[in-house]
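Each letter names a residue; the fold follows as tokens. Both lines appear below:
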Amino acid sequence: MAQIDAFFKLMNEKGASDLHLVAGQQPVLRIDGEIERVKYKVLDNDTLKAMLYEIAPEEKIKEFEETGDVDFAYEIPGLARYRANFFLQKNGVGAVFREIPSSIMTCDQLGFPPVVKRLATLPRGLVLVTGPTGSGKSTTLAAVIHEANLSRKEHILTIEDPIEFVHKSEKAIVNHREVGLHTRSFAAALRGALREDPDIIMVGEMRDLETISLALEACNTGHLVFATLHTMGAAKTIDRIIEVFPENQQEQVRSSLADGIRAVISQALFRRTDRRGRVAALEIMIATPAVRNLIREGKTFQIPSMIQTGKKYGMQTLDDSIMELLNNRTISPEDAYMKCIEKQRFLPFLKKPPADFTEV
């Protein structure tokens, strides 16, 4: 057993999502979104480095020493998997570990609207899950992929950096590829994927122009592609994809995206007030013919109003989702106000002036 495993067991016992180990500081856990220090001595650089190097693959140690940061996955059988990031900082080495549960929660267990589960039945197209870092995008994608795995006799290929949730093949065949370990890059893996007979491709993150371009090509050649982006809101997500391309290509990309897009889920994560844990509020855009026309014509600023009027298709705004959680007393008014879009709508629920004075 590695020396660091004791911290992972503590993390699991406390229900923490993240573990921070940094030279010059005490260990820190993130529990239900908030930072809590562990009653332990301040970590010195040499001790921490030895602890971290004990669990890192040799090639990852080499990459870390050459570049100053590295990502990889670490697993403790019977406990959980962890997404690890090593980095250099002022006092020496540092590391952050995100726990990836060994069991995959279903869409029903996560309390998602029925339309999210139905995304797993789509024959082709592009489905994007967006939101800031730590908003639960991987958990949402894993739940939808799990539904497809249980119901479709097809080939599912995931491309991640690193591999997070591990799906055991059920009705489908599931293959996981890790960037840096099994393939050089997301783009290289996507190029290869088109020759590997996949029906569903999951791209951990669309980071650059080449990856986005290949994902669009895949969804427009009969594949169902799931991917994540660090954007907030369906309209901004569409704009971000188009703006990545040179100006002289944007008209063509707008048309290609309009043809390929099927849905955008944009989410924010909240600390629960009814019990321990966190819960996601979802904005859901379904690409109806009217939505696709807006994308094709460059009128993405009209997408929010289209979402508001598209409830019969399963669409919902982020604020409506937040309001439902608030009315059910699942989240606090303060958190709802901080993460909502239309601040005035949530002001009456606050007992005191908001902490973010720039939003007043």
